[in-house]
Design a protein that fits this description.
Rossmann fold, 9-stranded mixed β-sheet, alpha/beta, 581 residues, CRISPR-associated Csx2 family protein, 15 strands, 54% helix, CRISPR-assoc_prot_TM1812, CRISPR-assoc_prot_DxTHG_CS
Amino acid sequence: MKLLTFLGTNTYQETAYRFRDRVYVAKFFMSVLAQELQPDSICVFMTDGAKAKNEGALFDELKQCGIDVAKVQAVHIPDGQTEEDLWRVFSIIADQVDENESIVLDITHGFRTLPLVGTISLQYLKFVKQVYIAGVYYGAFEARKEEQMDDKKIVITPTFDLTPFVYHLPEWQRAANELVTFGDAKTLGSLLETLHNQLRKQKIAVNELKRFGSYVNDISAYLRTGRIKSFTQLFAKSESILQQEQLVKEIEQFVPPVRYIFHQLVNYIQCIAPKQSRLHTYYDLAIWYGDHHLLSHCFIMLREMIVSLILERVLGEIGPMPDDREFRYDPIRKKGERLLTTLLKQQEKKQLRNPLLKELAEKLHRLTNYRNDLGHFSFRTNHVLPKVFYRFYEEEIKSYKLCQLLENEQLWDELKKWHEKQTIEHEPNETVLITPLGLSKGLLYSAIMHNKPEAIWVLTSKEGEQQVDEVCRQADFRGNVHVAVMEDPYTDFNSWLTYMNHLIETIEKYKEDRIQFIVNLTGGTTAMQYVVQQIAAKLEEKGERVQYVAQVDRRDVAEQQANPYVLGEQFMVIEMHHLFF
């Protein structure tokens, strides 16, 4: 532990200092601290004037107190009468402190500004050098008063322990700064939790303060990790927590600094309160993310919001207010993604004529590109410069230009008309059946009979390959048949990309057609079914139309084998594939 102290030019008088439970008679308060705390070293900052007038008296007193003066270092500092001098004093103090060192600061003596500079410097060093502030003390000579001790009256000089202010107040300051600047309440919640634990050891109940700390931690974590659904649910609890009279009392009694942060927190929550519409709820949240230096969150939030608006305003898949379905990335949201992807592709090919749709597509193209660029951390060709992100945010998002476009009812009318036209013009005119085939010929037969495809892509084994022609004859299928053979139909799980490439090659001739893929989930080995499901999922990601089906034959196995060519039942499967991915 190192003691830092200042020496001034006053004519110091001997006085009785009360420090903790003991009384010491001394001229210099640092003598008291040296005896009580037994530091490993003492650093005395002094000007030329202080050195000339008081250094000798100080060292004499330290010797009389039994302090080894070899561990006392006198450090010269300027008088501190100019701003330049004060910065030099800061540098000198900082140079005397090592990283992770335990420091005690005595601010009793020295020219008026020097103790203040020392205190502020120590607060700074706490963060940049991770020093531990073991104590900050002041011997209050001007507050001395007469007391009765051992049947006689004696003038006692009190000493003040300022450690809580110097050590803890900057922590609360940092918590407030992180909350206001970055929207991060983690430090605030952590400090409240620590305080609660300390008070609990003293058998002091602060239940509302604990509840408040947990709430602050949760709301910050949900916001900063984009858990919007959970945040919305948590927000509903805000009134019951923040308006508790007991909470206000506990804050005023035990953590006065939080009294002022508390109002900031209430404003922080109100700014991102759920609004009456999806657009305004999420747009305000996106602005909040941007203003708190979370541009990636901002761009992701906006794009997901636009998908939700498409589902609401164009496709009619969800209602006007958020619900559980909106937060599931299932086939419903993929419909919105496909529409958005088609819009962007048409803009890229200069096929859009409507000015509102062109404007929407242009903004969405930039938003999507910037979202992806941020997500790849510049690991891509021609990555975007930071100033481009911020300019887009300021000019298009924070200015509410994008919001105004999305509020335009004509935009949604035009988008709906465009979508209806696309649906009519782009109805699939070619159906490709993707199916595994094991030894159950009847399942493939039923799949062909139910779906009447123009082409079939079969994943099977060498044995199964020999049965394909027979099944097609029985089903009177005369379209194109493409067969991919698995070398090991039981364990070849990881080669799905190879079979995906095979599928792409075989359907190249249909590239001018509008294709719907019918994916049969039944038949073949587990490995075959897994590969087919992986391929289907990848096709969906690419925006292709995919319909899942399953064939069921309720007859016993012997009858199925004896007479396989009997039409079974077919079931349309909506979400089964999500069980596998």
